Amino acid sequence: MLLIKNGRVIDPKTKFDQVCDVLVDGKRIVKIAENITEAADRVIDATGLIVAPGLVDIHVHFREPGQTHKEAIHTGALAAAAGGVTSVVKMANTTPTISTVETLEEV
Fold it and tell me: Which residues is 19 bridged to in the sheet?
């Protein structure tokens, strides 16, 4: 079990927004409450941090293929993940432009 303590929990779908604790079992949230006291294998102090669903960035410039000196898929994905982004929509401004199935499969 994972216990996240004292984070600002935000859920845009339900409009939930308050400082509280979150208890996670595997990939499932089992409890959200003001003060969870159950034992956990791991505890994260999220004081001053936001706990929320993964964010989606719908405009990224991963310049692969052709311009990896600007940004590669790997480095861009690492930066996105560090900021809480779990999904991205990659722009096609690459060299060559990602406009064919063959180029898309390569990328």
Answer: 8
The CA R_g of the chain, rounded to the nearest whole Å, is: 19
Tokens 């791991």, located at residue: 42
In sign, the C-alpha dihedral spanning 25, 74, 10, 58 is negative
CA angle 46, 22, 83 (to 5 degrees): 45
Instruction: List, in order, residues 6 or more apart from 29 with CB less than 8 Å away.
Output: 22, 23
At CA 84, angle to CA 81 and CA 99, rounded to 5?
55
Give yes or no for a contact between 76 and 47, defined as CB atoms under 8 angstroms apart: no
Q: Residue 77, exposed/middle/buried by CB under 10 A (0-12, 13-18, 19+)? A: middle
pLDDT in tens, 48-102: 999 999 899 999 999 888 888 898 999 999 999 998 899 999 888 888 888 889 8
Check if the beta carbon of residue 39 is closer than 8 Å to that of residue 2: no
